[in-house]
Amino acid sequence: MTVSGGYEAEPKGLNPIEDGDMDSLFTLPLSFIPLKTPALRQARMIKNAQLRSVIELFSDVQTGSGQIEISDLPKLLNWPTDEVHPDHVIIRKLSTLHSYDVFSLRIMLRKIGVPLANAADLQLSPEKNQELTHYMTQFTRPLIAEIYGGEDVQVERFEDVVGLFRDPDIKRARQRLQQMADALGIEILEVPTFLEDYGDIFLSLSYYKQCLDRLTPLLDVFLASMYDIRKNYQLRQDQNLLRNCDMIENTINELTAAITGRFENFERSTKAMWEDISADRFQKVKELIQAYHVTIGGVLCGLTVKMNAWIRLFPKPTTGGPVKRSEFIMSDIRQGLDNITKIEDSAPMMALLS
């Protein structure tokens, strides 16, 4: 087991991206995974700076993070040596996942054959839902406009949309349900399911957009530091370093451009959906967005882990110096970056899904 040292003090204004376990791209609490080993159920799986999945037994600002390689689990946990422990099988499967966000997990846990006792566990926290209110507003506005037209309806959260159909006036509530059913071309009893699907799919899009928005300032700081490395008299003689800096910068720019382009495509598809709304058109938009959950989650997870590692080690522009920064770039930043590119390259073709 390795124990990373206590984290450096971080400056105000730019900190690593941290979320609660169920809201994180790169942290998987093992408490809801069907494992038999108590010590594992109390641990977490995380992505380290090289993007390897490791088991984190403890984490503290003072003591750092206590991590163990998955291959070392049998010895640490005294598992029998004559057969593979079933928990090790599950852990190995989980380690192949590119992201641990709940939307990717819903797809991938089923794909790799890891069942959950309660699928409802894969939900964002109430706090995260509240954070995403601003992002969700752009998706609730056209819904309200379509169903209520010029009515003065106050809606701030998606939950408020659902609340509109729980009017104490039963007649008025039924009228609203019928309005939506007519607009969608579905039966009135199908409206609650539509609302649930609508809220969840655009919550996922809001979540990923927030992840990108939070990541962007960290990427900007990192890319700016590359300039200092290139102009350093000693380091600019190192052609291998300069080639890697160019490769890393190009890779980051290409990855962020690809994700941004997808968000723009999703927005165009959503806008077109509302120009002629129907349950079928919504289903196509839903499937389009879901098709990219694993790709977007994986790319954002990889870049966030890399940038978090950078900000922790170099929290200020003056921390470390160009030489130390170049060493970290050639070790931790470069390692595993090609895997993020592979995730992006494996994404389905947008044209085939339209």
Automatic annotation (TrEMBL):
It comes from the Bacteria. This is Uncharacterized protein. It comes from Roseospira marina.
